[in-house]
Amino acid sequence: MRHNHKVALLVTVPLFLAASCFGVFTVKSLSADPELTAAWRDQLGGATFPERYPTTRDNATVLRLEQLGAAIGLSMSPAEEVGRSAPEPDAAARYRAIKGSLITLDQTPNHLDRSPQSVPADVAAFLRAARPQLDAVSSLLLAGEAPVWRLDLEGEIQQPGPNLLGILELTRLLLADSRLLFEAGAHDQAQLRLDASWRLTNAVLERPQVLSQLIGHRLVRLHLLVLRSLPDLPASWPERLANLKLHEQLIMAFEAEAFQHHHLGTSSQSAAGDQLGVWSRWRGRSWARRFHHSIAAAKAIPVQDFDPVTFTTEHPEALPCWDVPAQLVMPTYWDAWPRGAQVELAAELTVLASAERQRLANAGAGGPLDPTPARFSGLRWRYEPQPGGTRIHLDGGFRQLGPHDLPLEIVVKR
C-alpha cells in the first residue's frame, strides 16, 4: 500500500508541477504587457499604435495615380490586386526603352558647379510626350488629398502594401521632368514638379513600415541630387530639409513591427481567423520584447558608430538561440538602422553647400574656419579651402552604407 502511495506521489507531483507551470505560462502568454505598452505610449505621445496609425485603405488619390502611371507605362498597382490599372504593352515598352538612361540621373556628383548633368535625349523625348499625364500627376498631388495606402497594424504581419517600385519610378520621372523644365527656363513649373514629388515622398515616409522608410530615404536622395544641380536652392527647401526626421521615423517603423508581433502574441486568433496556440503567442510576445529592448540598446549608440554586425554580436540576448531564421537575417536587418541619419546629414550638407556656392559666387572668402556642428551629436562640418572652391566634409567618421548613399563630403566650385 505504502509502495503504491509513493508511486502515486512520484507520478502526481511532477504532473501537478508541470500543469502549474503550464498554467502560469498560459496566463502570462495571454496577459497584457504593461511595461512595453507604456513605453510605446510614451513614444507616441500617449497614443497607442492603432490610434496613431489607424487602419486605412487605398484612397482615391492612390487609385488615380495608378491610372496616370499606367498611361505612361508604369506598373503602380500592387501585384496581388487583380483588376487594378495596368499599362498597355506598348506604353510599358516605351518606358522600358528609356529606363536605363533615366537611372543615369541617379549618379552622385562629387562636386557642385554650374554645369549640372543634362537629361538624356531619349528621356527628354519621353518626358515631353508624357507631359499631359505628368501635369495631371502634379495637380493631383498638389491640390488633392495626399496618397494614403492600406495599412493595418493589427492585421497579418506580412500583408500587401503599396507598389513601392512603381512609386520610385514615378518619382524619377517627376524629378527628371523638373530638371528638363529648369533647363528650359520654366522655373515655376519645374518647382511645382519638385513640390509634387516631395508630397508623394512624404506620403511614403508617413507609413510606419521599414521597407517604406527605406524607399522613402531613396526618394529623398533623388530630390537632393536635383537640388544640388540647381544654381540656387529654392526658398522653401532649406526649411523642408531641416525638418526631416528620417531617423526617428525609421525607429518608429522598427517599433511598429515589434507592436505587430506583440499584438499577434496577445490574440487568440490571427487576422485570417486561424486559432493561435500558446507557443505561437508566446513566441510573438517574446520576439516583440526582445526587439524593443534591442531598439533601446541601438538608440544608446551614437549613430555614426553603429555597426550592425558588431551590434548583433555584442547583443546576443536580442534574439533567442532557437530562433535560427531571425538570427540569420538580423545583421542585415540592423543595417537599415543608420540610413535615415545618413540621408538627413546629406540633406544638411546640401543646404550648406548651396550657401557656400552663393558665398563663392559673390567673391566671398569661403566658409567658416571653425567646424560647424552637425545635426547629430559628435559630428561637425569642416570647410577646407581648395583651388577654385571649398571642400565640406564631416569632422568625424560616418560609416558609408551602400552604393546608393550620398557621400557626406562635397567640393563646391566657384
Distinct helical segment count? 16
Give unreliable regions as ranges.
none
* Strand segment count: 5
Helix-strand sequence: HHHHHEHHHHHHHHHHHEEEE
Strand content: 5-15%
Radius of gyration: 26 Å
Q: What characterizes the major β-sheet?
A: 5 strands, mixed
Walk me through the topology.
Layout: H1 2-30, H2 34-43, H3 49-52, H4 60-71, H5 89-103, E1 111-112, H6 121-129, H7 131-143, H8 164-183, H9 187-205, H10 210-229, H11 237-242, H12 246-265, H13 278-299, H14 308-314, H15 324-334, H16 339-361, E2 372-373, E3 380-386, E4 389-395, E5 409-413
Parallel strand pairs: 1-5
Antiparallel strand pairs: 2-3, 3-4, 4-5
What's a concise summary of this model?
By secondary structure, the chain is mainly α. It has 16 helices and 5 strands.
What does this structure look like?
The chain is mostly helical. Helices cover 58% and strands 6% of the residues. The protein is built from 16 helices and 5 strands. The protein has helices spanning 2-30, 34-43, 49-52, 60-71, 89-103, 121-129, 131-143, 164-183, 187-205, 210-229, 237-242, 246-265, 278-299, 308-314, 324-334, 339-361; strands at residues 111-112, 372-373, 380-386, 389-395, 409-413. It has a 5-stranded mixed beta sheet, with helices on one face. Strand 2 (372-373) and strand 3 form a beta hairpin. Helix 8 runs parallel beside helix 10 (210-229), helix 10 (210-229) runs antiparallel to helix 12 and helix 10 runs parallel beside helix 16.
